[in-house]
Structure formats: C-alpha cells, structure tokens
Amino acid sequence: MHVTQPAPTVVRRICPLCEASCGLELKVAEGRVLSIRGDDSDVFSAGYLCPKGVALKDLHEDPDRLRKPLVKRDGRFVEVSWDEAFAEIERRLPPLIERHGRNTAAVVLGNPSVHKLGLMLYGPRLLKALGTQQMYSASTLDQMPKQLSCGLMYGSWLSVPVPDIERCGFLLILGGNPVASNGSLWTVPDFRGKARDMQARGGRIVVVDPRRSETAELANEHLFIRPGGDVFFLLGLVHTLFDEQRVRLGRLEPHLAGVDEVRQAVAPYTPERVASRCGIDAATIRRLARELAAAPQAAVYGRLGTCTQEYGTLASWLVDVLNALTGHLDEPGGMMFPKAAAFAANTAGKPGIGRGVITGRYKSRVSGAPEVIGELPLTCLAEEIEAPGEDRVRALITIASNPVLSAPHGERLSAALDTLDFMVSVDIYLNETTRHADVILPGRSPLEDAHYDVTFSQLSYRNHARYSEPVFAPPAGQPAEWQVLQRLTAIVLGLGADADLEALDDRQTLEQVRKLAGEQADAVFAAVSKHRGPQRLLDLGLRSGPWGDGFGARPDGLTLDKVRAAPAGIDLGALQPRVPEVLRTPSGRIELAPPVLLQDLERVAADLERPAPPLVIVGRRHVRSNNSWMHNLPVLAKGPVRCTLLVHPADADRLGLRDGETARLVAAGGRSVEAPVQLSDEMMPGVVSLPHGWGHHLPGTQLRVAAERPGANLNALLDDSQRDPLSGNAVLSGVPVRLEPVAASAGA
Ligand code: SF4
C-alpha cells in the first residue's frame, strides 16, 4: 500500500527499531505520519509499543536523513545523481580489487541491516561477489559468543533457545535487561507485561546483574555479580547439580552427548571456590541450583553481559548446560527452539543431523583471530587497515553501520578509515563513520519498504509469520536497498554499473532455487516469479519452509500471498519441543561438552584467584535508545540527559565525586572520557555504568539533534585488543577504569 490520499488512513507496519518487532498502527495522510500506536490486532505483540516505536515518525521525517547520494569532492560532500554515484564506485573500487586481491575490500554490516528485508536477503550476494575474508559485523560486539556456543551444541548458528515465558515458572536472567530491550536474541514484545503475568501465576524471576536494572526492579530477587564473573557463577551452579545429585535429563537423555565430560570439567568449581570471583556467596549459589532443579518449568536466559566479556562463549555455553541438566531445555515453560516460517537453517536439509559448524577456516591477518560464521572480529578492522602488506584492507563498504561509535577504540578506527583508498557507505545518515566515506548511498525510510523479519522470527517467544507493505512510496528515482546492493554486486562482478539488474536477479535467484529444489527448480522458479526482488525470495522461503505449502504439496500451507492477506499476521502457535529434529550436529545429538570449550576452561582455572580491580565499568541499555542510531530523533532525545555515569554513593564518597558534577574516566592506555555523575545505589559498589553509542561531538556529521546532546563515548575508553578468543567478541564489560573529579584533575 502506498498512501497518498489526503484523508487519514490507518496502515499497519512491523516496527523496525528493535528486536521486539511490535506490530504498529499508523495513521497517515498525504505522505505524513499523523500518529502511531500499538496494533491491538497484531497476533504477536497485541498492541504493545515502547517510546521508540512512536519515533518512527521522527525517523521518516528527519531532515538530516539522507535522500540523495553524496560523493566527496575536494574533502566536501556534494549531492550527485544515483548514476554519478555508481559511476564513481565503478571507477574506483574494481581497480583496487584487481590490483590487490579480493581481501583488500572489507565489509561492515551494522545492526539496522537486520531490520531491513532487502539488506538481509541481498547482502549475502554482494559478499559472495566480493569473495572477501574481510567481513565484519556488529555480531562480534555483542552476540557472537551465544551463536558460537549454540552452533557447537546444536549444529547451526541461529539455533538459539529462548524462554517460553508464557508457561515459565522460574526465570533466571543473567546480564540481560528485557524490560528495557524487550528481548535480545529473544523477541518478546511487552516483556514487562509477560513477566507480571508470570508472577501473577506464582512464578519467580531472579536477575543477576552488576546493576539493579529495570528488570531487576521488577524481579522477585536481584543479585549483584562481579562483571565478567558469570562463568564462575555458572560453573558453581553446574557443579552443585552434580554434587547434590540434582541432574535431571528427562526426555533429552538419549539426545545428549558429553554429560560425563561436563561432570568432570566442573568438578573443581565448588561454590566455595568460585564465590569471591563472582561476588555471590556459596550458599546463594547452592540455593539457586536447588531452586532451578526443583522448578517444574524454568529457564535460564543469559544475554549481553554474559557475551561482552573475555569468557563470553563459556558463559553462553554454561547457560544452556544448566538448562539441559535441569530438564528444562526443549520443554514447555523452559528454553525452547522457535520454528520460523522461513529462512531458518535448522528447518532446512535432513532433520536431526547435519554438518555442524566450523570456525577458524581462516584467520585475521594481523592478530590471527579465527573466523566465526565467515566473520572476523570488528575490533580487528583498524589493524587490518593500518598494517602494511599486500593483503592490507584498502577499500571498505559499510552497510547501516557506525563502528566509530559502536566499537572499542573508535578514535583509532576513525584515523584508520582516513587512510583507506576508497570507502562506500550505504546508510541513512552522515554519521561518525560515514563521514569518512567517498560515496554515501542513502537507504530508504523503513516506511518506504516492505518488511518481514528474517532473523527475529527465528528468535521469537511464539511462532508467527507477519509481513508489512510499504506505507509510503519512495521519493522518485530512489532505488530500494536491495537494488543498491544488486548494483554494487554487478559492479564487483564486472558487469558494470548499468548492468541489467532484473536479469542478474533472475540468474542469481534461479541459482538459489536450483540448490533448494534440484530437479523441480524450473517449476519452483516459475511458481515464485510472479513476485520480484525480496518478495520472490520471501515467497520461496515461506513456501519451502516448515509451515509452507511446499509449492502445492500442502495446499493449506503458507505462501507470501497468504501472509500478505493477513495484515495482523498469522499466529503459528506456542513453541513446541523440537529435539531431535532441530539438531544439525554430525552426531545427531546435543553436544554438551564441545572439546574446544572444555579446553578453554583452562583460562578459567588460571584466573580463579584474580583479585577484583577497585573499579570497573559496564554499559547499559535505555528503553529510549538502541545503540548509536536513534539519538537524532527529537521524541527520543528530549527529557533528562541519559548519558550519565552511574556511580554508587560509597564509591563517589571515596573518590570525592558529587551528583551532577563531571567526572573523568581513565582506562588503560590513558584513554579518557568525561561524563556527568549520577549517584545511584542501583550500582554494585566498585562498578560504574555508562550507556554506549554516544559521543556525537565529532566534526563532519549531519546529526543536528544528536550533536546538541552528544554524550560521552563509552567505547572510546575500551581496548580493541581485548576479545573472547573463541568468538572474537569484544570485551565491553568489566573493564578496569580510574575515576576522578574533573575539577580536581584539572588543578592537579
Ligand atoms: S519495543 Fe519499541 S522499538 Fe522495539 S519493536 Fe516494539 S515499539 Fe519498536
């Protein structure tokens, strides 16, 4: 639906601003949004929306949002036509690849790309055409450990179990704040409402976090934990289950491999030994293990704080080990595997067995960091640009990504970007990263694009299929992002900037269909080709998916037309047990003790006695923000300053800090930022918190609202050499810092 008529019209759109994917109802007229509310009829979110959802209007109407391509000439951006922009790319990118090889071109995918159907479905084609090993994304900033541990245990990267909250009786949350996020690697709109329903049924929520977060406030119990101490806490819990004979494998027993290996591996980690390292006393660890084991329906959910640390993969693994050993994995009310209607690797191929996952097929050139899911750690990008050598990164394509603010040591990355021979950005903003580009290709407003959640339907608390039509027609001549990526693909393939994109799309789609349908390929291709572009791929995904019509074999099954005909979405029901069908491991079993993880426990053993640094820093999430990309929206930017440094009053006393004063944070290497102090007993003493994604004071951007309240950049403090060695995830939590009053240090 393209709304142009003057009379107000109500249209539905899935919100693209965070993982919760709420269904929204927009009242629109004459190309403008009049109001936004939650869509009561939405089968998945049932009318819920958070303050960010309303900001979709601001995003659509933001005068700073780019609408024309920009090319840098003599150091300044000038608006050009699309043809001129692609001609510039064709003139400069292919010769670099020809001269220096495919790995000279790097790609960075940012978080918003996962909210765009076109970018999700056509990004892989550009990557394949480039053939580069220099692929980076936001995944190595916050979620790769969970994907790696799940890949090793279940055989595919997005087989991530989520809490079945509607039937759960005991929910243990580590390092996550779903009241603010509405789930992360767990799509659960209105977490607060669902949590309250759970408590009303007599359920219990326990939150383990170095901050008494909004979720902890709502919980029945909150425990402070030393940042980075999760692995020790979890080892203590698993140890207790074995020690007290509380392991209960239940229905999964024949499907689990490695129980004895886990028993041996955790034997040294008594609650008494791990207590000081995690900051939670032994009696509490034992009590929680007993409660978890005794609960008929329980789930342990670990999120951001468990990933953004040096033991991210181990902590993520142990969360699932706990669920499995207490009989709560793949059980109603426990941790369950969604069955997405389209695009899930764990519904493709032969059920119950597969090739599993492999990492380290190649390593980063400078640090030797192993590849995971075809990606290198984003914290390696600066050194890959800086270090001389034939394989040096000389060209970069960023897609909806702002690593100068979102990755550690952005100042270094910023300087490195200035040395590139060529950089292209596909982005809606001239931001702290894209200001370094030679060409910026603007994306469309989300309201000008159709939408289907490729990823989040694989992580949802309930199975569903929902599709949104575009709300508005795009500006004349503005291509969709999938067309932008196809044109870049054509340039990289040597077909030229003016290649026939329809023909290229036909060719590449037919190739995909052949892999999927074999001898039936021509018939399947004909069946889906009444749609074009992403819609054709979506129809292909839905019809070949577990709920699909099988191209006529199951006439009641899903097709794109059926999903489209249900604007409030199609509910596919509560999550169902899926083991062993969901597994894609070579053994056909859940690998409870992957050797690479058992081996990594050696680091933990060596680290058991490490004393707590006097002060460490963690990030935090606010419901009115999501990474760096919503700070230019007036409706979210207004109100109290949110980029404050939370400091426990006892720490403030010790350091001579007062509420509202500016303090300087200094980290290793002398990197420092200044931020206003907010005294708060929600912090664990010895831990301070600054939200991430801020620091909009850098020159050369076009983010006028954000620049008025730039905030301090947490990531500017962090060290880009600190990573979880298995997943390559950046260490963002528990980093030692020094804190001093600005006035005192200025006078010193
Ligand atoms: S929680 Fe808010 S930002 Fe996230 S999808 Fe829902 S309305 Fe949008």
Helix/strand layout:
Layout: E1 9-14, E2 23-29, E3 32-38, H1 51-54, H2 56-61, E4 70-73, E5 76-79, H3 82-100, E6 105-109, H4 117-130, E7 135-137, H5 139-142, H6 144-154, E8 162-163, E9 170-174, H7 178-181, H8 191-200, E10 204-208, H9 214-218, E11 221-223, H10 230-243, E12 256-257, H11 259-266, H12 271-278, H13 282-294, E13 298-302, H14 304-307, H15 312-325, E14 335-336, H16 381-386, E15 395-399, H17 403-406, H18 410-417, E16 422-426, E17 439-441, E18 462-465, H19 481-492, H20 501-517, H21 521-528, H22 533-544, H23 560-564, E19 570-574, E20 590-591, H24 595-606, E21 616-618, H25 634-637, E22 645-647, H26 649-655, E23 662-667, E24 672-679, E25 687-689, H27 704-708, E26 735-741, H28 742-747
Parallel strand pairs: 6-7, 6-15, 9-10, 9-13, 10-11, 12-20, 15-16, 16-17, 21-25, 22-24
Antiparallel strand pairs: 1-2, 2-3, 4-5, 4-17, 8-14, 18-19, 21-26, 23-24, 23-26
Helix pairs in contact: 3-19, 4-19, 6-15, 10-12, 10-13, 10-15, 12-13, 20-21, 20-22
Bound molecules: iron/sulfur cluster (SF4).
